[in-house]
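[audit] Reproducing an earlier prediction to check determinism. Same input, same settings, fresh worker. If the tokens differ from the archived copy the diff job will pick it up downstream; this log only records the rerun itself.
[audit] input (296 residues):
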Amino acid sequence: MQAPTSGRSHSDVERSPRPAAVAGDGLGAPHATVRVAVIDDDSGFLHVLGKRFERLGWQQRVLASPVPVDDLVAMRLGALVVDPAILGRAAWDYLQDVVERMPGLAIVVCTARSSVAQRVRGLRMGVDDWLGKPCHPEELVARIEAVLRRGRRADERHDRPALVSGELEIRGDQFQAFVEDRSAELTKREFELIDLLAGAEGRVLEREEIYQRVWGYAMARGDRSVDVFVRKLRQKLEKASPGWKYIHTHFGVGYRFAPEPVVEVAEPNRVIAPPTERAERGEATVAVDDEATARV
């Protein structure tokens, strides 16, 4: 199923911020303005949350139904709070589209009912956090702030020049890796993973450290998310740059980024004995190589 692509069948309310009543917003910059869109139709929840946003000096845009992703892009948002129940049956397609097209957006899901499988699917897809209802608005705000802080640290990396490694050019400002200006088509999470590994400058990173720094919280026992994403990342790198190997596995530990050219291993030379020579020996020699001769 496809996400909505055109039309406006939603109520659209924009609240202008009042001056912040606190010295800072918890993000390290006093009175910083954050644009937040909330896709939800719970009027009581929206009222209380809106009051909190206004005290912080944030701009809130309430959407009672999903809008085309192009519209979200045009809003120049810093964060999106969304209840998948409002998105209907196209919820996963819609979230996937948002994640892929707005890689710098802080996405927090806030919904009443969800299973462990749904939460895991959303987080692995690229949603930054998942919170159950009912929840305290202060906790939701704190989670948004945490995601924004991680994004700000990522922005600091983006100020660095592009990293060239092997045939790859890793461009933080575009959340993407390129080979001769051809995109490797990495998702947001895959880019965060290669950016972390490449930035370690050849050091082996343990799975737990990778998970903590990319996903933002401690890895649960038995979670294979890191391995799954490394496999997907490798497949895309091999397709984009088949002559190079970039990510090396250290079994039982983690992964290391070190570009190495792929060396083709030649097969041993095989020599077929001339028929006349075989006849003179009275033998039927089928193959001769450097190691052995097979006879029948």
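[audit] rerun output stored. Observation attached for the diff report: The chain has three domains: 12-156, 163-261, 266-296.
[audit] end
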